[in-house]
Amino acid sequence: MSINSKNPKNFSRLENILIIGNGGRENSLAWVIQKNVLVKKVYLIPGNGGSERINKCERINIDINNKDQLVEKLDLLKVDLIVIGPEIPLANGLADFLRQKNFKVFGPGKDGAKLEYSKSWAKEFMQGANIPTAKFWKVNSLEKAKKVILSSSIPLVVKADGLASGKGVFIPDTKDECLKAAELIFNGKFGKSGNVVVLEEKIQGPEVSVFALCDGKKYILLPTAQDHKRLNDNDKGPNTGGMGAYSPAPLLTEDHIDTIVKEIIEPTINELNKKNIDYRGVIYFGLMITKSGPKVIEYNCRFGDPECQTIMPLLDQNFVSLLEKCSMGKLTGEEKIDIPDKVSGCVIATSKGYPQEYATGFPIKIGKIDSTDCQIFDSGTCFNENGELLTDGGRVLSIVCQDKNFDLVFDKAYKNLNKINFDGIYFRNDIGHQVRKSFSKGK
Ligand code: AMP
Ligand code: GLY
């Protein structure tokens, strides 16, 4: 969509910031945003049990789908910049709506969010721009899926086209499992999100997350990160939203980054422009570094979780100005993100049973933690009527630390984690195993 050039809010002011979302990602955004001296208040809709532990933060209890009430409230609070965290409101066009109401918004419109909410669209987009990615077949019936699967000479991955809370991707080992996955999706496991299925060539290599803040034309890169998708140690078990992360990802060499910029990031932004998509937000490139070079596994239209919690503590008070510049189409592309001489790591504490069924409502006990360069960002918590902090999600807490090297980072994170408890607490013990010198495999 075109942004109103007579926008009355087309001037810089950063006193009141609103963040939409309720996870650890949004709390970490609030944490870095409040560092800016110009910022007086950070509102979160709805936030969670940990949001108000963060300086200057206040939760607002309002339904974002009640548009009239939302706009009235934002006017009342004199909100200067809105940051939309999760993909669902972006896919539903919330950024478009708020921009039409003349708010400055960091987050793409519905057109840009399609990079995430339709995997087949994203694949065709990449094909059109010659962006390296796995080969794919888009099918709209089980019959057609069967044909591709049975005639394929290469191993395939099966994906529901639409949003499926990170659960719509199957990595089968056999053709039989492949067929079962396609059947499950076409039988309605993900509702309308499974009306179309994408079958993809299974590719191999380590995965990295790269984030570009984009103002529609220009972009700047954040420090890279590596997520840990599998539930259990040694990268075993089912896929999750992410069990921990570290940043930067030393696996990416300068050469890799040059290639990623030339072959992936710039062609993506050029293609968005070609399609008249004015993308003002973050583009999350989920990449696999294969033997034949980096390839895009997926695009997301938001920050990664837990990558965001991991990266934000490496950034300074200028970060919020960058978000604002993106929202206004005013990046120069020359902005520098000064990173301290530190690295960062995050371990997620989850509820027993996650990513499948899990119970909530267990009291959380946090002992005396080392708070030097350590943050605890609540991912899924709430309070009961006595003001007790309770578990309220599959991913409960993000324990994040920074230090001179990854061994120190994760020693500190795990020491802190051992002072935290709730019924059924579960976490991986090997987050950062790729970068911890002292880590012995199988420990
Ligand atoms: P996604 O939700 O698209 O990020 O996929 C979840 C995970 O599935 C990714 O992080 C990869 O580990 C894996 N995956 C997705 N697509 C492929 C592919 N084409 N080949 C191999 N693994 C894949
Ligand atoms: N950490 C993966 C994601 O946010 O999708």
Give a verbal description of the structure:
The chain is α+β, with helices and mostly antiparallel strands and 443 residues long. The protein folds into 4 domains: 8-109, Rossmann fold (3-Layer(aba) Sandwich), CATH 3.40.50; 136-200, Dna Ligase, domain 1; 204-328, ATP-grasp fold, B domain (D-amino Acid Aminotransferase, Chain A, domain 1, 2-Layer Sandwich); 343-441, Alpha-Beta Complex (Glycinamide Ribonucleotide Synthetase, Chain A, domain 4), CATH 3.90.600. The protein is built from 12 helices and 24 strands. It has helices at 24-33, 67-76, 87-91, 94-100, 110-117, 119-128, 142-151, 175-186, 254-274, 307-311, 319-328, 406-417, and strands at 16-21, 41-46, 57-59, 81-84, 105-106, 136-139, 156-160, 169-170, 197-201, 207-215, 219-221, 226-227, 230-232, 236-239, 244-247, 280-290, 293-300, 343-350, 365-366, 374-378, 381-383, 389-391, 395-403, 420-421. Strands 3-2-1-4-5 form a 5-stranded parallel β-sheet, with helices on both faces. β7 and β8 form a beta hairpin. The chain is globular, with a radius of gyration of 21 Å. It starts with 15 loop residues before the first strand and ends in a 22-residue tail after the last strand. The model is unreliable at 1-6 (pLDDT under 50). It binds adenosine monophosphate (AMP) and glycine (GLY).
